[in-house]
Please model this.
Amino acid sequence: MLDYDREAPTYDDTRGGACRATAAAAELERLLPVGGTVLDVGGGTGIVTSVLAARGRRVLVADRSVGMLRLAGRRLPGRVLAGDATALPVRTASVRGIVIVWLLHLMPSAVDSVFAECARVLEPAGVLVCTVDKDASGRGESPDPSACDAVATVTATAARFGLAHCADGAFVGGSARPPPTYPVRAFRREG
Ligand SMILES: C[S@@+](CC[C@H](N)C(=O)[O-])C[C@H]1O[C@@H](n2cnc3c(N)ncnc32)[C@H](O)[C@@H]1O
Model:
């Protein structure tokens, strides 16, 4: 995995900047339930989260990179949490929405743990929206079913933690030309 502390100063500009963030946030917003707090897991510099906040969302950003979080803190003072996606520093059943953008593909051995944590912190009927098939999408290729964030794998993992597939979407963005289309899938916490 990249060293995101070192990557932080150039991250936004090299990943599609405000255009990517605006497109991603608009699609996340469409899939999230109304109201409540939205937690951005692996939210990095907060570039996507801050667009959600500008649209009226109450937000939190969690990330394990101090360098990325420093930038997120400038955008969203008091709304950033240092922590790992597999052990979120958030109370049980306390957030109505979770977004995970471009994180799961980096965690081949921890997708189960991430979904377990998300299921714990989501309110009943809360919704998690995450990118799937990230690497292949970014290259404009067909999805790789063996990827750790392959849509079938993510859907099966979510179901094991009581998160039922409820909707799909996609956003266009990124630094490649033409910008790729990234699929997202939404899951609702049952019970
Ligand atoms: C590709 S960046 C995506 C950032 C942000 N979601 C976005 O779309 O701009 C991946 C982010 O995940 C964070 N990350 C990687 N592994 C993590 C983990 N185990 N727990 C929390 N954050 C993690 C990195 O520090 C980095 O900020």
User: Anything to note?
Assistant: The chain is about 35% helix and 25% strand. The two ends are 35 Å apart (CA to CA). Residues 4, 42-44, 47-48, 63-65, 68, 84-85, 101-103, 106 surround S-adenosylmethionine (CB under 6 Å). Residues 4 and 10 are 10 Å apart (CA to CA).
